[in-house]
User: Fold these one by one.
Assistant:
Number 1:
Amino acid sequence: MAALLKKRAVAEFSQVIQEEPRPIKKLKLVQKPLLPEVHLDLTVGTSTQEAVSSLIHLERQLSQIGENAVNIVRQLVDHYHREKESVVRWKIAHILGLLSKHPQCAADTIVEEIISLLKTEKSHKVVGQLIQSLQTVGLSAPDNRDLHLKIVQLAREHSKHTQHVVRSSCLNLIGAVGSQDTISKDTDQSEEHISVQTLLISFTQDQDPRVRSSAFRAVQQLHQRGQSIDLSVYDRTCKALTDDYEDVRTAAVKLMWILCHLYPESTVPVPESDDEIRLVDDGFAKICNMMNDISMKVRVEAATLLGSLHQVSPKFLEQTLDKKLMSNMRQKKSAHERAKDHYASGEWSSGQKWADDAPKDEVAPESVTLMNMGACGAFVHGTEDEFLEVRNAALDSLCELAAQSQEFAILSQDSIIDMFNDEIESVRLNAINSLRKLSNHVTLREDQLEIILGVLQDFSTTTREALRDMLCDVRVSTKESLNACIVGLLDNLRRYPQDKRSVWKCMKFLGKQHPHLTLPLVPTLLCLHPYFDTPEPDMDDPAYISVLLMVFNAAFSCPTMMTMFEDYTWQHYTYLRESLPDLVPVLKNQNEDKDDNLPGSSSSVSSFIQQITQQVENICSMENNTAQQMLQVIVKDLHKISELDSRNSASAECIGNFLQSQLLLTQLMTKQTVSSSCIMDNHTLATVEKILELTKICQHIFVGLGIAEIGLIRQTELKAITIQILTLMKAEMTNEKQQDMKQNYTKLIKNLKSYLSSSQCHPDAFTTYIFSVVDDLDLNGLPEFITSLQHATTMIKPSAFPIVNKIRKITAVINDPTGPTDKPLKFTAGLTLAVPVDVMLENVPCTSNIRIKKKFADQTVQLFTPKSSDFHKLGPLRHRLVTQVLMSHSLWTEPTNVELCVSMETASNQKFKDTSQDNVKQTIDLSKPVQVYVSPKQVKR
């Protein structure tokens, strides 16, 4: 026996296995083309225009000059000395500044070249450009303090130039790179030793307005770069507010705003008085006074800056809503102050009346300017301005200041509500949104509601929608006011039936916000009588549903009104609770099992889903028959959960779709049709198509999937495509189609491999094997390719789906049109019909791929792409689509329905049935189809 075993072992080890040599892999070296070297030759040009064109061409190629940058700088400088035309020298100076950003060019070298050019330049425009180039060089070297000191000193020397262009360029350079380091340590404040800020302030009195505005902007640049600004700038800024030029006044207003933030508690003297006030109050009053400026640009700037001055005293804020000035051109004083002034005057009186002939505190008429009103009526003038830009800016600032103070919000609500009647729609929308932001501070009065509710008759859908959203948040004071809101909304519903969903939502929040005001209105709203039975209202009436929604939401916080409900009211409640669950609350007095804490609640369902995911963790190690039986039960349970529990329906449906794809794969492998040599039937292809459809839905419809979950879905997709390609290759196909199919398949594998490696996901056994032989698949012939895939399919096993994140499903609900009607929409055949569509989109991260699918009676399908302006963002993942779908068709013999459906357009995976259809656009339906009854008519001649 031992000899026999020895003989067998020797026989086994003595066998010679001869392996066929594998083909040598061919490496394809790709050499990137070298960028062409940039050369400059300005001597070729015979005219100024050709020289400028050459310089413009050089400017466009600055990123490609490479190591030739130093030579180009030298050529530009040499040609600069020979050039006689100032426009060419100006362009060369501009390019020298841009070259300072190149790593091959030293900033110090370019500065020296520019300084040498400044010494011989006569044209003031070229000098100004050279100084601007110095500014560009300084900004390109932010850490070179010595360089900054050098160019700032040069700018100081040229700041005495006679031309405003040069002076403005010098001031811009000082503001851009100047700092405290450039202040001389010498205490002598001569012209050679003067601080940067003092130098800039001295130019605020320049004779040229462009230089004055540049000086103020340079001071602002110092502040933006973190440099401190002295309080001494305030006096010059106040004087500049009355400058004759609007650019100077605009710059002064901005600097005034900066000083109010830097020194809010500093005190400044009041003109012609011994009193002092806070700087922020004085600056606020002066900026308010600029609301009367003759320039619209200055008024917009002043109105915009007022809103961020939150430290202003309340008395100054209140003056902005009052137009009253000082009476009789006198300064108002108390009795003690008047007695003290009379005593200090030392004048004699007749004795008949105390201080009857004493000189009064007259104000010189020339010292009073009627337009200089300070903060008085600033926002009143702003909201009544003739330009919509000023009105919008004033509304924004008024709303921002009112949000900081409840008292000011109450005072400002009249001014905001007056803007509801503005002639410009954007201003009306701004006023509505501003009042909505102040809903926590204000309560609407009856006289204000008359203006507010009038907007519900506006033709603009956006304006009506914004007003209803505002009514959802505000509070009213009396039941008469609430009744007026109800009447206005019902009238809105009668005029514009397409606003039905929005009106219902507004009625819900009105009842929720005012339960105790709704209670006395219930008998009138529900037509109740203490002695007589009233007829049951029609549930198809949208107005009656609106009233019920308001009453039910009010009854949630005021159970007293539930005792007033009739029996049919409770029946209507049950119907609305099932049909409109997001608008109807759960009334606790109802004998319904609606408690969330019961065993069938959402928390228990979540735990049940987690148990299911734990059960399938080891499904890959089970036999196919056992795994198939388990998956059938689990998929059935998950689909049932997705129908019953709305909170966990997305998670249950996503897991159910994935496990159903695993079930279909397991069924294919159980039949052993993949590895067998028999011809595949159409049932296998249909099953594969179903798997691909499920994986596509899991990838695109559900939001919140992690990288691991997406990796599992794509691996399942690869398994299905492998089975599909094997099935198709066993059919009678041409060699060319098989080669294209093979190429597309290897491309798909490489894309999946790069995705899994970048996301650090672990592939399963099937995917690991495919990745290991992907290079061989690309090089081998078709028989070896099919053999490798057949061997890979034997490794296909079902996978588990561990979900960690909260999953949401992309959904769409078509609110308008509501469905088929008896009256068709008629249009001329061959022309277009605009069908209004109102859609609510949930959990949509991007709206660019949302489409409206139109399916006609002849089974033709068209996609309509809405405009980006048709989408209104209501939340991070919530949008509303209001658009008009264009529809056209040839002549029909009789009217019929056209189905409209909201779909998501996605780039499909590569199709292996027909390789010419790669990257075909496909859609996934997001909503239920709605039928529109249309009738194309013949053209009348």
Number 2:
Amino acid sequence: MATFAKPENALKRAEELINVGQKQDALQALHDLITSKRHRAWQKTLERIMFKYIELCVDMRRGRYAKDGLIQYRIVCQQVNVTSLEEVIKHFMHLSTERAEMARSQAQALEEALDVDDLEADKRPEDLMLSYVSGEKGKDRSDRELVTPWFKFLWETYRTVLEILRNNSKLEALYAMTAHRAFQFCKQYKRTTEFRRLCEIIRNHLANLNKYRDQRDRPDLSAPESLQLYLDTRFEQLKIATELELWQEAFRSVEDIHGLMCMVKKTPKPSLMVVYYAKLTEIFWVSGSHLYHAYAWFKLFSLQKSFNKNLNQKDLQLIASSVVLAALSVSPYDSTRGASHLELEHEKERNLRMANLIGFIIDPKLESREVLSRSSLLAELATKGVMSCVNQEVKDLYNLLEHEFLPLDLASKVQPLLTKISKLGGKLSSASSVPEVHLCQYIPALEKLATLRLLQQVSHVYQTMKIESLSNMIPFFDFLTVEKISVNAVKNGFIAMKVDHMKGVVLFGNSGLESDGMRDHLMIFAESLNKARGMIFPPSKKESKLGEMLPGLAEVVEKEHKRLLARKSIIEKRKEEQERQLLEMEREEEAKRLKLQKITEEAEQRRLASEFEQRKNQRILREIEERELEEAQALLQEADKRGKKKGKKPLIEGEKVTKQSLMELALSEQLRERQEMEKKLQKLAKTMDYLERAKREEASPLIEAAFQHRLVEERMLHEHEQQQEIELSRQGHDGDLQEKSRLSRMLNHKIQFQEMVMNRRRAEYDRLRADREERLNQILHQRRQEREYQRKIIFYVRMEEERLRRLHEEEEARKREEAERRRKEEAERKAKLDEIAEKQRQRERELEEKERIRRESLLGRSTDGLSRSSDLPGGSRPIEPVAVAPAAAAAASAAAPAPTPGKYVPRFRRGAETAVQAPPPHDSWRSGGSGSSGGARPTWSSTRGLRTSER
């Protein structure tokens, strides 16, 4: 490593090495000087050394050396003279760009020279051999050998400069200029890969700028100048991305601009916002997000209408037509129907991001389609006055597609409008940020919308239609395309139709049993039928336990599933909590380690700083002493020289005098010499004063004589010029009189021609005024008729609404009366049933009481002929009761009503009915009376057997 006492020596050494062709040694020598710690104080020589160093780096394409040198030079002049660093960097970029352009021009010249070398032969033999060996063309080979290395070096230059200036608040303008030149480089040479890397580099610089806020020279984004530079850089990035058709990078650039606006919480100038929304329209159209494309056009229209004072009516009409056509191009149905939960969440997050980009702040908890939708956009266009600015063709198309119901004539009326709209568009004269507007790009989407509207309206009118008829009604597409469009519409629930290719027809509507309108009614009807069948034909067997468990099994499974999900979520939360605790512990340990390391580094820095200050103070004191000693010696030498000239002895001897006394003597000698010099100057000034006064006294009469002579000459000149002016005026007057007399002959003709012209113009004016009054009367009459028609329509609509409201109220009143009547009938029927049940219970109690009395009477009148068996349990032997009197039997038979066939009879009444039946004629015991006058009682065993059989 070479060391130089002065920077000038290093510069001279480098020039000597360059002259003998040793550029690498010269570069190394300058690099050693720049990176040396001995020369850290800025001086003008270092700037010249940096210029030479940069030139060597560019000549040898040493980007790494250039970067190291610029970093060291930034350390030297950051706080002293930052303008010098700016000049060096500009020189660096200028040289790199110049050499790249030179290499490109050399490659072009070489290619042209190779092309016109031989006019008779197509290619030279060596070119043919080289092409067979390498497989490359001449231009590709020359680019690879000459142009590509310099382009790589130029790209490395831009990266180096951006890296050096990324956190420098004093060179923000240079940073922005470098970024703009790098963007233009990528645009000019179609370097898409380098453009993506450049955008990522600038994005990382801004992220680090926000991350490390405690840096010394960090740019302040809250300052208006800094914010404007950063915004200009991002907008230039957005423009280049759209021109290179890098739409993903353009979208990320838009997000960068939006993030920068959110970061500083300031809205840029309207001119920049116009560019922002203009590029958003292109990005959303390419990505297929037609809804957000339309919202971006709407924002652009609002900005142009509010802030662009030079916007004429034609341009405003064209922009408004673009807004309406973009809104109509949005699909009329939601394409996310039937999507999975993950897709819906992804779509929701995407909609939230794009809504924020176009300036709509929505709640992420809500469904975004409830906030930004096609219907809300069209309603907003109508309320904000956009529809009043569009072309008549666009307005007619909007009414046909959104408000008219013409299932058979819709396509035939839409097609000529689309043909006219496709021819509209062109350059805008007053909206510079939106150079061109072409409405033909919306034609395919509008044709698809017209097809969907036609299918929707036809489905409301027809149930079946032939495929040929439907194809003839849609002139935009063939039936295969129409079928694809209808499949997506049916999938998303916009229309209901089926295509039967075997029969060649299209079926509209849901006529099957799977219809949503019939499903519930059929289910209720099936359940009612099942209940009625169960009541008529009861099941013979018991239902299995599995049938009883099945209804509650789904609920049990659902509860178990929820419990497992809850347990899983609890486990995941515990895992997350544990991981969070571990991360917190690691973060705390890392913070402690960093804090300890920072304390150690700060102590080391303080120690080094104190040592450096101490060495610096010692060096300064030593330099001051040396400088004072040199000055004293110089003063002593001057005093000796003056003493020798005047023949005097030396004032003092050098070894016996001190530095202070020597300086005092030198100062006193200087003071004495200064006083002598002042005396000499006073004497000389007095002499010069006398001399000048004498000169002026001699020159004053000469000056007066010259002045008088000059007055005489100027008076004569004035009189001569005045005579010439009078003569010229007289000649002009005579000529004008002659011209007047010559033209006076035509005065009558001039008056006649003037009257003729005035009469013709007056007649034309009267005719135009009459036509205008007639046209105004027609327009007033037409508007009066339109207002009358509108009032009639409004009156009819109000009357129709009033009639429907009255019908609705009458229907509601009828329903309430019907419900009240049913409620009263139900209450009466319930009261009658309760009364009948009460009577039935009363009758049963009376029968029970009569049965009890009859049994007691039977038990009290039993005779000795009654045989009992005490040793058999439960009355296994029959008991023969005594005969009942005929009157009691008749009363009992009269009290017990005859059982009705098919009617339910209680168990206690079954015994009573059996007991009053007449005994068979072959019974051996009688009561003593004749068989016709008294009734016989059956035996106990026969009665028990009868009850058992009835059971």
Number 3:
Amino acid sequence: MSNLKLGVDVVGAHNLLPKDGHGSSSAIVELHFDNQKFRTTIKEKDLNPVWNESFYFNISDPSNLHNLTLDAYIYNDVKSAHSRSFLGKVSLHGTSFVPHSDSVVLHYPLEKRGVFSRVRGELGLRVYTTDDPSIKSSTPIPAPEDIQSHAQPVQNSLPSKSKSEARHTFHHLPNSNHQYQQHNSAAGVVPNHVTKYGVDEMKSEPPPPQIVRMYSGSSAQPVDYSLKETSPFLGGGQVVGGRVIRSDRTASTYDLVERMQFLFVSVVKARDLPAMDITGSLDPYVEARIGNYKGITKHIEKQQNPAWNVVFAFSKERMQASVLEVRVKDKDLLKDDFVGLVRFDLNEVPTRVPPDSPLAPQWYRLEDKKGEKIKGELMLAVWIGTQADEAFPDAWHSDAATAIDSSAAASTLIRSKVYQAPRLWYVRVNVVEAQDLVPTEKNRFPDVYVKAQIGNQVTKTKNMHARTFNPMWNEDLLFVAAEPFEDHLILTVEDRVGPGKDEILGRVIIPLSIVEKRADDRTIHSRWFNLEKPVAVDVDQLKKDKFSSKLHLRLCLDGGYHVLDESTHYSSDLRPTAKQLWKPPIGVLELGVLNAVGLHPMKTRDGKGTSDTYCVAKYGHKWIRTRTIVDNLFPKYNEQYTWEVFDPATVLTVGVFDNSQLGGPNGKDLKIGKVRIRISTLETGRVYTHSYPLLVLHPSGVKKMGELHLAIRFSCTSLVNMMYIYSRPLLPKMHYVRPFTIMQLDMLRHQAVNIVAARLGRAEPPLRKEVVEYMSDVDSHLWSMRRSKANFSRLMSVFSGLFAIGKWFGDICLWKNPITTVLVHVLFIMLVCFPELILPTVFLYMFLIGIWNFRYRPKFPPHMNIKISHAEGAHPDELDEEFDTFPTSKSPDLVRMRYDRLRSVAGRIQTVVGDIATQGERLQSLLSWRDPRATALSVTFCLVAAIVLYVTPFQVVAGLAGIYAMRHPRFRYRLPSVPVNFFRRLPARTDCML
């Protein structure tokens, strides 16, 4: 019997529909879950009832929780007539159930039960799971009865559905998890078996890469900077034109990367090792050597039965020997002593591919250099496998170390890693007022303000200079905090007694863990906090004082927002902070990091240029880092990663960096380049295998640093759900109900990036701050003459179509082509005589243009374009300005101040111009098949609109449109409309901007 329970706190309802004929209702709430039913008490004659009652359901099968539904029905209960009428319902899917610590009160709009039912209002619920054994389940109502039947007058008895009806209730709900598993099985994402294959399997030569272009005309860039489509042989077979041609063997789990052969050596422990020193002690370590490569474990002091539990992975591509030697040595100050060894012939090493069980380690007797058995045994396991092996992520890799020597103890700096970014919250501090302030000087009124601090974030209210000791501010202060909450909120009330001289009147320290969480815009109850004296005072005096100064605050953790920690153009996640508001995923994104070619040397080692590179990819809360390939300008990674996708209007970012920590901890990891891919531009189920140029802007100009070869696949679990997403607001509801200003968003984003960088920098291996900032485009808002010119060119390109129409109409007026002019005259007279044909003709033309453009739809993800970015012909002085420090270091103080102000203002203008261009480009993408799903919806709408407008009188359409545009504010909804939401999700050329 499971101890897991579902807790439901019924808080209250708001603005219910009157149903008793006297302008009121007597509301009661029924809860249905897992064949159990509970109900609240009846609130007589109240359209805004408050219950604050808690119920606990037994969860019969916790593994099936995500398939269950909680239904809350509100009825108007009429005791005298023994009847009730429907007021509304709320249905919550199991995917939104979260633990008690993550739960918040949410006010859900009431839903209709049928097409003709009428409801209004909201129901406040807090829903959570708990395994607290002290909480007992509520007693369910025993009497079975249909939910639409009459209620019994007894207060605590409630009808319940029959089992067959309950089964029907859950059967019609979409099982997204089951669909997800089915799709992945079909696509080869997570197969249940993997076929073994030969070690030296032969491969035919793949065809040469093909260059593909995104834009024609002036936007076309040099061939060397273009995207190249490839047809590599991956784990699932050869990829040709985005489709996988299956090979004879079954696809492996790693079907988006090339299979790499590794010799795995698992060093477990040793026993009965002989003493080597005069004192009888032994400091053993193990050295696994094959050819020029060797891996070394850490030494264990004074231990004849040591344990290491280390795995070495030697790349078969670099092997130059056929014998593996595993040596046990004794660590010494001058020269390490040889203890014994075990030899393996590679021709006799077994091959193991998951899901085969791991190879069991065995005891091997140590031999001396002559091959004779000596004292001591070593427990080992040796096998040949691929990167699909469970030991691969934590193994020491020979291709990630130098050929001369490397230690497994230092391999943390070069190991692959998956990071989870912290969950971020907005902290809202509403400073209302202070009471009974006691200034140090009794003969003056204080000039006070409140300073608030969380970690390194500091902000303050405006100064309040009034003839009172009870100043009032009513100001909102905003911060960003990350779970788990480590910093406290510190509030100090300070008095400005003179220029540059402030005195603290009191302080209060509030742990963030006690601050209330909310997921909507409900009012937070205010609290009074006692201000502590900043310095020690006489104890007797404190006893005499019966009062203390107080501070009136409203505090909350706003979970209804998405905390923006990256550029809004390249957001990888748009979900709110509160987990209860999360929707089920709509698909799965798979990334295979194959290899890089022609990398630019980033350092010098042994007199030659080289690089120690690794890749970082970020999407949502999940960051990944591949292993570092040392001393290689053509590294092969072949690592595959997976993300859940919740919104197609998001961007995957992949960056390549040079690891500067191998030579010492003081160097910064250098950026080599990055790639951005918008999910909505990917066709479902297609495998994209392209070689992306790594373009970086330097003070000397744009430079190609190499090419990164990726394999990408987006798999959709539910096409209907994904199409529905296009009609939803881009950001959570709170961004529209209580929006932030541009200044606030910029400040909060800067704080969020710093918090994410600090948390990821504490991992092992650390993801350094310069990496996080480069991946998050932290400096995208700063002024740049080059970006401003590029955005202006984008703007002109958007309006170029209007200019072309104007020129064409001028040519018509000038009769340059008489036949065309006559046809236009005929069309114009026909439309004047039959105005109802104007709109159908326009939409029909748009439909035909969209269908025509289907032939020329892009078949590859967008990539960075140096011509669109105005990077190729940028003036050296403009680049010098762009790479200048902020604040500038080029001029004296006065010029520096003006220069910084100019850059800041120009940065705003640059953003506005870019946003205008983005809107125009989204309009262009309606029919360009840049986003195949959006264009399919668009052309379908155009066809339907053409037909509807054809059969509907134009006067009716125009009249309805005018009435709708001028409708009363009461009939307006605060969230954006469906067409606006659809339009904001369309892709623009921001993905191609450097």
